[in-house]
Structure formats: structure tokens, C-alpha cells
Amino acid sequence: HGERVELQGAGAHDSTFYKVTFFSWFPFTVAPALVGIAQCGLEHTLERLKTRTNLFRQKLGESQAVQVRIATTSAQIDSAHLLIQRSMSEMAELARRGEVPSVALRGRWRRDAGYASVLAFEAVGSLFYRGGAHGIFRTDALARAYRDVGVGATHLGADFDLASEIYGQAIQGH
């Protein structure tokens, strides 16, 4: 921290993206979209639960198991959002001050973007699992969310396996 740097384009553009290195913000082009898709999957599930019943005509939304699943997935989505928000806020503040982030901080940002993607995938996967047979249809919104987040989580910018390696090396000073 503390080192000042002038990046190419920083003098011509006011955007934070011209004041932060590409590989610092690149993972945040994917992870927020995945978290947004997971949030839409949750909203779709909540809407569907208003009318969905089991074989005994009991409302599924009144089931403790479903309520726990909703609580868990919403916590995963909120946690992913907060990881992204913290990283982006830190990035913007350092850019505003014209400071270069440490290697460890850049590694954490990468880890956080990757883990936010994992949380989004786990959340939408859990919703999909409880979504019922609707998931076999290509037109089902939850099935679409599951496919999109699953594919997105493998993107270079969202890949937690790669991000973990980067973080592990950065935090150990390698």
C-alpha cells in the first residue's frame, strides 16, 4: 500500500476502471452477474412457492425444510454480494487515492470474486434441487439460472480453483 502509480488512460478518463489494473477488476465482470442470476432464481422460487403444493395439498412454502433452504440460499447470495461490494469499494478507494494495492490484497480480491461465484452456484443449485420436475423444461427460469451460473462459474474470471491458487501464493508472499 501507499505506492502511487499512474496507469495508462488514468489521465484521460475519470472511471475507476482506468485507475485500477485490468486483472484486479476483471473477475468482477463475471461474479456480480452470477450473483444477480442467483438472486433472480431465489425470487422465482419464492414466487412459485406461493402456489406450489405437495401430493397431500400442503403448501411447500410452509415446510420447515423449504424454509431452511430459502434461508440458506438467501444467506449465500447476500454473502456473495457483500464479498463483491467490499472488494469493489476497496478498489475504488485505492484508485481514488492513486495507490497500488498490495499483492495480498489483489489476491484476496481474486479469491472473493471466485468464492462469490461458488456461493451463487451453490445457492442456485440448492434451489434447482428443490424446484421439482419443472427443471426438465428448457423454458424453466430456475433451470436457466442453474445452467447460466454453472457455466459462468467456470469462466476464467470466476474460477475459484484458479483464484484459490492465486490467493494462496499471494498471502504467502510467493
Task: Give an overview of the whole structure.
The chain is built from six helices and no strands. It has helices at residues 22-25, 31-49, 64-97, 103-129, 141-152, 160-171. The radius of gyration is 19 Å and the shape is elongated. 34% of the residues are buried.
Descriptors:
174 residues; 62% helix; mainly alpha
Helices and strands, with pairings:
Blueprint: H1 22-25, H2 31-49, H3 64-97, H4 103-129, H5 141-152, H6 160-171
Beta-strand percent range: under 5%
Mean pLDDT: 89
As residue ranges, the low-confidence spans are none
Number of strands: 0
Question: Could you spell the SSE succession in H and E letters?
Answer: HHHHHH
Kindly state the percentage of residues in helix: 55-70%
Which structural class do you get from the secondary structure elements?
mainly alpha
Largest sheet: none
Indicate the radius of gyration in whole angstroms: 19 Å
**N→C terminal distance:** 17 Å
Identify the overall geometry: elongated
Number of helices: 6
Summarize the structure.
This protein is mainly alpha-helical and 174 residues long. It is 62% helix and 0% strand.
